[in-house]
Amino acid sequence: MDTITKKIFISAGETSGDMHGSNLMREIHKKNPSITFYGLGRNKMAEAGLQCIRDMSSHSVMWLQALKKIPGLWNVFKNCTRFFDEERPELVILIDYVGFNLYLAKAAKKRNIPVMYYISPQLWAHGSWRIKKIKKFVDRMVVIYPFEEAFYTNGGVSAKYVGHPLFDELNARDIDEALVEKMKDGENKTIVSLLPGSRKQEIRKLLPILLEATNAIHEKVPSATFLLSCSNTRNLELIESITKRFTSANNKRLSIEIITEKVSEIIKASSLCICNSGTVTLEIANYQIPMIACYRVSPFEYFASKPHIDTPYICLVNAIAAKEVVHEKIMYRDDYKWLVSHATELLLNEEKREVCIAGLKEVTSLIGAPGASEKAAEEALSMI
Amino acid sequence: MTLIILSVLSLPLTATCYFYSKIKLSVVFALIFYVSNIIFAHSLLYENYTFFFYLLMAPCVVFPVSCLIAFALDVKYGIFCIDTSFSSIIAWIFSPILLPINLIILYLGHYY
Q1: What is the arithmetic mean of pLDDT over A25-40?
Q2: Is pLDDT at A57 greater than 70 in this prediction?
Q3: Of the candidates A122, A159, A127, A161, which has an alpha carbon nearest to the alpha carbon of residue A144?
Q4: First-residue to last-residue Cα distance in chain A
Q5: B69, HSE (Cβ side, Cα atoms, 13 Å)
Q6: Which of A99, A131, A304 minimises the CB distance to B92?
Q7: Apex CA B62: angle with CA B61 and CA B67, to 5°?
Q8: Per-residue pLDDT for A374 more than 60?
Q9: Cross-sheet strand order for the sheet of A190-195
Q10: Which residues of B touch A73 (CB under 8 A)?
Q11: What is the distance between the terminal CA atoms of chain B, rounded to a whole angstrom?
Q12: Separation in Å, CA of A302 to nearest CA in chain B
């Protein structure tokens, strides 16, 4: 065993990165307990032993909000570069959060410190020219989708596919089966769950369309009942206000139950999930529940970003399968009729459900194996 | 008259080519749009309202074109850490304003 203390700098900006970072740190520690971690993270990474240069809880922002955070982020960046100069870590591990982490990659590379990037920015989906920057600043990409390895290797970047850490998390997660049974009410209900995403911006755009669709779905499938997932209590107020506004404006009696922080249970109890096109689609695929994925943008956003989109599929499940396993759509108008027609089809047509479930099984067989964090830890240690 | 036609038509042509990812053609029409609208604004404003002319050029031409040049360099050489694809959004917000302003000034100048 290596007795000299080695330092690894690790940086994660967002909640999901914090979770995956903490798992990675534990796996590295199992293999080499002499390693000390310094860097940027949140509570989970701190619990795993990170000596925090700065807590990143207040720094995860999008779009225009990010402008307000620039002075704060600049200070964080200066602290990190000072740490690189004074402590000279053996390795820099960057987790997602490309807007900030790429600056750290550049700073580390300038000081000849090896850089490993874990959980790649989705360059294959949007702005693939950015691979040139990755090539300049990153020594090894440790990627979580099977097609990413070829994408980076073809671009001249050393890459290793390790699997998706979400499946480690799902394997370790305790599902409240009693709650699932209670939701199902002994198989008497046809549950349709609505998963509008975890970011406020996404919820504001998508939830009204999902709610609009519920009425029409209920008219066609009267046994359908609806569960609305609130993945984080921070969003509960927003979700309640949108739902209240919708039900009072439409004078509807349809009951939609809002359930907080029980995403896995909701999915498991459902006959159909209607969701945002993000990582949650992989969790739904894991439980092999038919789903419909959509992403709401304004017409202007659709127009301005369309030429930069490099993938035929926005839903991760379809991107992994390289075919349309689940129905997906980028919505630039409130096209709830599209949702209703596909939802009805998947609820009433057993053959279509079977095809969808078979496709989801195929996808999970490609990506669903646990052990991503362990393999990523091996990659990290091989770079020291 | 040719200038007005070029100024007006080049905008939807740029947008159509951009939307369907015909980027080189889109750049050609964008250049026609910028040149014709700069000449248009110059002929309307420069002589009597020089300050207003420059005030119009800064946000509608200089700023978006600078962003687009930075974006083009980034795509070619990967020089910035920041994701410069927001440049096209900036260009689509600021540049088209130039055309209606020119037409309004032309209208006001013609009737008043």
Answers
A1: 95
A2: no
A3: A161
A4: 14
A5: 7
A6: A304
A7: 100
A8: yes
A9: A256-260, A224-230, A190-195, A272-276, A291-296, A327-331
A10: none
A11: 20
A12: 9
Name the residue among A126, A130, A300 with its Cβ closest to that of B78.
Answer: A130
A312 contacts chain B (CB < 8 A): no
Task: Inspect the interface and report whether the beta carbons of A127 and B85 lie closer than 8 Å.
Answer: yes
User: Sign of the C-alpha dihedral, residues A174, A177, A178, A184?
Assistant: positive
SS3 A330: strand
CA distance A68 to A20: 27
With CA atoms as reference, the chain A residue closest to B91 would be A304
Higher-confidence position of A187 and A196: A196
Q: What is the pLDDT of residues A253-263, one digit of tens each?
A: 677 899 998 99
- Largest pairwise CA distance in chain A: 69
**Residue numbers in B near A156 (CB within 8 A):** none
Phi/psi for A270 (5° steps) reads: -85, 155
Calculate Rg over the CA atoms of chain B.
15
Rounded-to-integer distance, Cα A35 and Cα A25, Å: 9
Pairwise CB contact (< 8 Å): B15 & A126: no
Is the separation of the CB atoms in B41 and B58 below 8 Å?
no
Of B18, B77, B80, the CB nearest to A307: B18
Q: In the prediction, which pLDDT does A1 show?
A: 46
Output DSSP code: residue A140: E
The minimum CA-CA distance between A137 and chain B, rounded to whole Å, is: 10
Residues of B in contact with A135 (CB under 8 A): 78
Which residue from A minimizes the CA distance to B76? A129
Alpha-carbon A38 to chain mean position: 24
Cβ(A165)–Cβ(A144) under 8 Å?
yes
Q: A119: how many CB neighbours lie within 10 A of its CB? A: 29
Contact B83 A127 (CB under 8 A): yes
Above 50 in pLDDT, residue A292? yes
Q: DSSP of A160-176, one letter per residue?
A: EE---HHHHHHHHPPP-
Residue A249 tokens read as 């404006």
- Cα–Cα dist A38/A19, whole Å: 16
Which two tokens mark A100?
Answer: 């900030």
Residue A210 has pLDDT above 70, yes or no: yes
Residue A247 or residue A203, greater confidence: A203
Task: Kindly state whether A114 is in contact with chain B, defined as any CB-CB distance less than 8 angstroms.
Answer: no
pLDDT tens by residue, A298-326: 999 999 999 999 899 999 999 999 999 99
* CB of A210 closer than 8 Å to CB of A230: no
> pLDDT tens digits, residue range A65-102?
566 777 888 899 999 999 999 999 999 999 998 888 99
